[in-house]
């Protein structure tokens, strides 16, 4: 022997492990992609990935504010999926490495995570009967792919080779191998591709596996460059082929998800009925023209989005139905055509998230078209003793709303339209609840499919056991939009502007306080209604230097916004929005 590069596969134990890890990632990754495709076909709203992600979201420790805020859904879905992909890749690499060392060790690891996948799917309310089969199939596919790839790896770089040759190597023979690194040389340099003698056919048994002595050697430098040996090439081809199949599968999965396209198209063709009770006209002057002020009516595309849905539920309106169940005289089932045929009401309502910080932007105002829930519940006839309606989304999410808020004179509705369009998919298409005066988590169920009339003593909405209050009336609040915190306006008159809200009572006054001085009343624009936010502005002459500016609202009953700070959990933030400006001299 001259160098080990010519007597063995030319891989070190470490390199072999690296390839085993790559085999694990490729096998598991491809299997997961296949699972997403299968799920799209048999269980569109629950795939193994979304089920596990959903389980992670649901498992958030109650009362952990930062977690809760992000997991109320503010755009962290992509981060969660990316994090999951990283964790899965790590575990898959580990499965590859341990399986290459010890047969079935990686298989066992994959099986455990397959079972975890089954448990996650079973925990999803929207799972179909076949959904749990998907993670089983994913685990099986991952195991088969991994075994297949590792057999190829074994053919190229037999398990014991590295240790054996390390031990057998003469000290002076080691240096050149190390210098040549990972691609120190192909394993059978003496034979061009396709000319292996039968006894040394590497594909199914491997050199070490069949006990054949290694063939005679030739120095690595003398190798013809194109003579990639079959065993290595087969492994790399198998690995690359699987990876390509996985990538193509990913594209296919995305295309299949394009069934979203079908729902999107159905949505765009939908013609909403005219409102029997149209929205009152927006009063002149309700909208203040001031650069930087948020628009009085929030465009759909800019409307904040909060939900636990990793994937927007895709509901074909022709298959949608709403059931009214529970403590009622008559259960009701209503399909979409029947809903559209009801006398519709259209109103501007400002909805807000309980996770909205003082000064935050988890709030928006839209013109909603819908059927008053009051009329629906009157048809069902709530039984005495009922005090709550548990509304359920197609994905299992629930909100517990006081029965009173759905039956009193306020405009609670089963909404189908938002700003003159069918509900956008991410805002609840085809139907959702909108209840003036209540935070979204106890009222605004999107993709709603069931209203269960019940009692607070018997049922809990999704967030209540997770550290959020059973009841969630929106707290009176106000916000300074202009100028931005930290702005550097020029000296002279600085124009402040913003919004204030006190649904369903309505805003009576807004005051501004500069540098802890007296409260000054601002110019308050007329609201569209008591259920919407109001715009305000005030010009103030400020001298050069730093100034602290605060705002507070008072409702039409004279109740003043709470000054003391409260965090968003358990029932909404309080405190005065405070900004600092640095007036230029
Ligand atoms: N199905 C479903 N509906 C839901 C939620 C959810 O997680 N799932 N979140 C609620 C919360 S917390 C809020 S604040 C509002 C937000 O509605 P939007 O996304 O249309 O702004 O939706 C509510 N409806
Ligand atoms: Mo919310």
Give the gist of this structure.
Pfam families: Oxidored_molyb. This protein has 585 residues and is of the alpha+beta class. It contains 13 helices and 18 strands.
> Unreliable runs, pLDDT <50, ≥5 residues?
1-8, 162-225
Overall average pLDDT: 84
SS strand fraction? 15-25%
Reading side by side through the largest sheet, how are the strands ordered? Answer: 2-1-10-5-6
Pfam families: Oxidored_molyb
Transmembrane segments: 20-42, 78-97, 104-123, 129-150
Region (Disordered): 164-227
Protein name: Oxidoreductase
Structure description:
Residues 310-463 form the Oxidoreductase molybdopterin-binding domain. This is Oxidoreductase. Residues 164-227 are annotated as: Disordered. This protein has 585 residues and is of the alpha+beta class. The chain folds into 4 domains: 6-161 and 228-259, no CATH class; 172-217, no CATH class; 300-466, Oxidoreductase, molybdopterin-binding domain (Sulfite Oxidase, Chain A, domain 2), CATH 3.90.420.10; 477-583, Sandwich (Immunoglobulin-like), CATH 2.60.40.650. The chain is built from 13 helices and 18 strands. Strands 2-1-10-5-6 form a 5-stranded mixed β-sheet. Strands 3, 4, 7, 8 and 9 form a 5-stranded antiparallel β-sheet that branches. Strands 11-12-16-15 form a 4-stranded antiparallel β-sheet, with no helix packed on it. A hairpin with a 5-residue loop joins strand 1 (321-326) and strand 2 (332-335). Helix 2 (48-58) crosses helix 5 (105-122) and helix 4 runs antiparallel to helix 5 (105-122). The longest helix is centred in the N-terminal third of the chain and has 30 residues, at 13-42.
